[in-house]
Design brief:
This protein has 512 residues and is an all-alpha fold. 85% of the residues lie in helices and 0% in strands. 55% of the residues are buried.
Length: 512
């Protein structure tokens, strides 16, 4: 397959999988909100949030596996890839056991977070989820390896199956009377099904690769454990700083009070999905390029990724914030608490800042500066948790969203100058080529949406004219400013002219 076709395949399938996930979330959330009620939906949201701990275990370790597989392939070390994959499966099998134990402990001792009438369902749901993660986590090592092989389309196929399978299973569970426990079973089953597909697709990608777990040599185990544990630390602190807020609200104000925040988080996840496919491909790409000495390309990709991220998140975030009241009325219905719209505004504003600096963060991880990212994440997570506890105690669920905005709005931007320094360019260069053009291109769609919000009465018409037309303007301007060819160039990883390749000085590699 030609590189152009491979690029298109990875990009299209990445966005296709995320679109399916967004649609499933947007359609399933109001259904569960109405059918389960605020108590039931709040209880399910607590189960889902605790389950996100296992997801961060997966993503944290997977990021390390992906980075190291891409690096070894960049060096042409097939034997090293073999040892790494086997060690990763063994390590994540151990994490699966940990996930099962944590689930059973949560079922036994954290049922007070559930609504009064849903505690039995909470215990059953947590137990089922733990069993699912016991199977899912070892299989996730194969999914991480697929991305390291630059075969993201197979990973996306598995994720698409989960995105479609979960809402179907959840609706069947609700309509058959299985309730919250049935929704948890559907969620766990979808995750396991996707994991099985990861294993099948990795076998197809590299038939020579042994799929069995192995301990490998001490150096390989130490490398996987060290890097993966640091990426896990970073993701754990992101969880503490964002998703943990649902549990904080449930603990301080009750499961029903957590329901509007949990619903707003789903909408926030939709904004994340617009940039996730870029970041999925970006980190292993950076790692492979740096390992093969293509330093100048890393700089170019980071600048372009920053520009694309801002051009995507800023106008869409503005649309979600301006028309949050209209969205809540249409999406969740008039019974949704009025505070939901304010929570959406605060969370979306935080995400615009956070997602804009993810290219810098992924660059630092791809170049091995994961300790630095972990340290920043610890400060972010602990600060946000402490601030959320204080603000939720005083202001309710909206306090958690305010704490998130204050914490990440101040701390996340420091990753840009740190990444610029690591790749050896001035921060002003990244701002001039990545930030400023994106801000300027957002003026026209932003002005249209602001005018529609000011002049039209609240309702579906304002949502269609303001948000709908505004996003069409944003899409046209973005494609014109960045261009399809530049995006394709951003995703290109091969056929690079020899003169464009530069070897990083040995001293810099040692420092990294």
């Amino acid at each position: 397959m030609s590189e152009a076709r491979a690029i298109a395949r990875n990009a299209v399938t990445s966005y296709g999988a995320r679109i399916l996930l967004v649609l499933s979330v947007l359609l399933l959330t109001p259904y569960l909100f109405r059918r389960l009620g605020t108590d039931g939906f709040g209880t399910w949201s607590v189960i889902y949030t605790i389950g996100s701990i296992f997801a961060l275990i997966e993503f944290g370790f997977s990021a390390g596996v992906t980075k190291l597989v891409a690096e070894l392939r960049g060096k042409g070390d097939q034997r090293g890839v073999q040892a790494l994959v086997g060690a990763s499966v063994t390590l994540m099998s151990g994490m699966g056991v940990v996930a099962l134990v944590l689930s059973l402990l949560a079922a036994a001792f954290l049922d007070g977070l559930a609504a009064q009438g849903e505690r039995d369902a909470f215990r059953t749901g947590m137990s089922l989820l733990g069993v699912a993660m016991l199977v899912r986590l070892p299989l996730a090592a194969y999914g991480a390896s697929l991305i390291g092989y630059q075969q993201a389309h197979w990973f996306n196929a598995g994720e698409a199956v989960a995105a479609v399978g979960f809402p179907i299973g959840a609706v069947v569970a609700i309509e058959s009377g299985a309730g919250i426990a049935g929704v948890a079973a559907a969620y766990g089953g979808a995750l396991v099904g996707a994991g099985i597909l990861f294993a099948v697709f990795l076998r197809r990608t590299d038939p020579r690769l042994s799929m069995r777990p192995r301990f490998a040599d001490r150096a390989t185990r130490r490398k996987v454990r060290s890097f993966a544990s640091l990426t896990l630390l970073a993701d754990a602190m992101v969880f503490v700083g964002t998703r943990m807020d649902t549990i904080v609200i449930a603990a301080l104000r009750g499961a029903a009070a957590a329901a509007p925040f949990a619903a707003a988080v789903k909408l926030q996840s939709g904004l994340q999905s617009l940039t996730f496919p870029i970041y999925l491909l970006f980190m292993p790409m950076v790692s492979e390029m740096w390992a093969s000495g293509r330093r100048a390309e890393v700089v170019t990709r980071m600048e372009l990724a920053t520009r694309i991220a801002i051009q995507i998140t800023l106008p869409v975030g503005l649309a979600l914030a301006l028309f949050s009241t209209d969205i809540v009325d249409l999406w969740l219905g008039e019974d949704a608490p009025s505070v939901t719209a304010a929570i959406i505004v605060l969370l979306v504003s935080s995400q615009v800042v956070t997602l804009s600096v993810v290219p810098a963060e992924k660059t630092l991880i791809g170049l091995g500066r994961v300790r630095l990212i972990g340290a920043i994440a610890v400060v972010e997570g602990i600060s946000n948790l402490a601030l959320s506890i204080f603000l939720v105690s005083r202001y309710g669920a909206v306090g958690a969203a305010l704490g998130t905005l204050l914490t990440y709005g101040m701390l996340a931007p420091i990753k840009v100058p740190l990444a610029a320094r690591t790749v050896g360019v001035p921060t002003r260069q990244v701002l001039a080529s990545g930030v400023v053009p994106a801000l300027l291109s957002s003026i026209v769609p932003g002005a249209w949406m602001l005018a529609a919000w000011s002049l039209l009465p609240s309702g579906p018409l304002r949502l269609a004219v303001g948000m709908g037309v505004g996003l069409l303007i944003w899409l046209a301007v973005g494609l014109r400013q960045v261009g399809v060819r530049r995006v394709a160039g951003f995703l290109r990883t091969k056929d690079v002219p020899q003169e464009a390749r530069t070897e990083p000085p040995e001293a810099e590699l040692l420092e990294l």
